[in-house]
Design a protein that fits this description.
two-stranded antiparallel sheet, elongated, alpha+beta, 3 helices, 3-stranded antiparallel β-sheet, single chain
């Protein structure tokens, strides 16, 4: 089964922190880590407890998907793209760490320079 690739943008929830991450996942807001699909916001929404909670925390930290300074999980959101044929896609689009894109690439290049490769 093939799923669509969606680019997600994460940021530390602590005000003023500049930690940002970009990952490619599927439409369920999940990423493939160690050949298993993991929901990015599962810690908040799934109510993990015990060993499952510890394993999730360790996995997110091991793959640099948490803020190292604040030990906080990143808040994730999908990219929000609008098509503007009058705006050329610039290097700033590929270097973006935020979810908004308003150029002719329709998000194809947005954040591409910061995508974290997950094993």
């Amino acid at each position: 089964m093939t799923t669509a690739t969606v680019r997600y943008f994460g940021r530390c929830p602590i005000k003023g922190c500049t930690t940002r991450r970009v990952v490619d996942g599927d439409t369920r807001m999940a990423v493939k880590i160690d050949d298993r699909w993991t929901l990015l916001n599962a810690y908040e929404y799934a109510g993990f407890t015990g060993e499952r909670r510890r394993a999730f925390i360790a996995s997110m930290r091991a793959h640099d998907l948490a803020c190292g300074e604040h030990k906080a999980f990143l808040r994730w959101q999908p990219g929000r793209y609008s098509y503007n044929p009058d705006t050329a896609c610039a290097p700033a689009c590929e270097a973006a760490t935020g979810p908004r894109c308003d150029c002719c690439c329709r998000g194809a290049n947005h954040g591409g320079g910061h995508v974290v490769t997950l094993h």
